[in-house]
Amino acid sequence: MRRCDKCNSDAIIYQRYSGMHLCESHFKEDLRRKIKKTIRKHRMIKSGDKIAVALSGGKDSFLLLKILHEIIAVRPDVELIVISVDEGIEGYRDEILSRALRFADEMGIQSRIGKFKDEFGVTMDEIVRQDFPEAPCSFCGVFRRAILNKLAKENGATKVATGHNLDDEAQSILMNYLKGDIDRLARLMPERSVDGLIPRIKPLREIPEREITLFGILEGFPTSVRKCPYADDAFRSDMREVLNILEDDHPGISYSLMRGFDKIRELLPASAVKIEQCETCGEPSSGRACKVCEFRGRVAVYGKD
Ligand code: SF4
Ligand SMILES: [Zn+2]
Ligand SMILES: [Zn+2]
Fold this sequence. Notes:
One of its GO terms (biological process) is tRNA wobble position uridine thiolation. The chain is an alpha/beta fold.
């Protein structure tokens, strides 16, 4: 058994990118330190903030909530609330969400939940039955972001915190580079401020997914191994595979990719993000009609047929 490089106890992880073996307690300390450093570096939390934590029930969202809860314990000038979305995927999201909301409740944090059915009149199960050419995730992502933004606004939140990790971010950056989609790339900017959109923060953006998985196991987070029955994002899966292969030979390459993007984004003018106002709902949009209205209209039309 290898020994922890910091205290000589049994190591539970080897971080190839840092060359360190770490025991459980030093691994957890390292992870907390990195998250807090990310928050400071990007000035993600300011005095008077009310942070709406998007709790999906995945391991990332549990870690995010736990760490933010620890932070606000010593920062009485900051408030937390949990917001969750029920997409209406029977046997999947309903089960995960009830466990997640119990977790928030045990921490004494109030939660608000928004449902596709209440907001858009359809569940994801019903959308999938309508057999649209787009992958279900396209509808799901657009509707989910709209509900999270609405819940955050209704509850006076100043930020929405999401559990995107280093792997998620590196995949998104690479995907948008390869597609040449500068607009989407610019939208990945942390803490981007746009009228009508509550700024998003991603405190876990420098933490590799495997470390979050390990933390979740050590902490006994009530996650589920079940996958969404509609998960199908082939391009993102390719990016994951490519980055995993590269990471094997070049430890830390995902982090370098993200750091490189951070430097580029500092050079992008604010006008790189095209923001108009949707003519139908008035919400910020990349064109004259927002995706929410477009999808909402199509779902309703198909629903009546
Ligand atoms: S995998 Fe796709 S359809 Fe399933 S919850 Fe995630 S975004 Fe929605
Ligand atoms: Zn140690
Ligand atoms: Zn609209």
